[in-house]
Amino acid sequence: MSETPATDFATARRSQLFDELLALFLAEGFAHLTLDAVAARLHCSKSTLYTLAGSKGDLVRAATIGFFRGAAEDVEAAVAAQVSPRAQITAYLSAVGRALSAASPQFLADLAAFAPAREAYEQNTAIAAARVKELIDAGVEAGEFRRVHAVFAADLAASTMVRIQQGDVRAATGLDDAGAYRELAAILTAGISV
């Protein structure tokens, strides 16, 4: 059964509204914004926002998941464009850095302070660690990396990724997130190369 033009328009409007909501949160954070303020900024009613999620917390969680889902697609596209495991790990971590560079410091601080969004970030970091392990294993299998404890190397990368997200690396080194991810890629791949 085909959707009607009105349904198509409503779906397109919700998608556009979600994209605008995500852009607002990424640019300014979300903790300080009320639903009334979000509705005013997006030029819609609160009832329209409720078509996206049932509460502000649900909106934040949905936006966070949407952000990480989109980032994951971009990251995997960057990996797929590379052939060697070393280049894939570098592409992976660099693409993560690029994706996170879209998020303002306020968004990242709000994310860390709001448990449902923080849980989504932590789940995404666990997925990233597993993906780094897969890439390391592929590099060992291809003879490009020396035999290392891939789970440890991936855990090291994940721990650093969390420190980057929480602003600890920036505070300690002055590196922005994208620069920190580039350095992580360089150190990790150099450390495991044959």
UniProtKB/TrEMBL annotation:
The upper taxonomy is: Bacteria, Bacillati, Actinomycetota, Actinomycetes, Mycobacteriales
* GO MF terms, alphabetically ordered: DNA-binding transcription factor activity; transcription cis-regulatory region binding
Keyword Transcription regulation found: yes
Report what the protein is called: TetR family transcriptional regulator
What region holds the HTH tetR-type domain? 21-63
Q: Which UniProt keywords apply?
A: DNA-binding, Transcription, Transcription regulation
**SUPFAM superfamilies per UniProt:** Homeodomain-like, Tetracyclin repressor-like, C-terminal domain
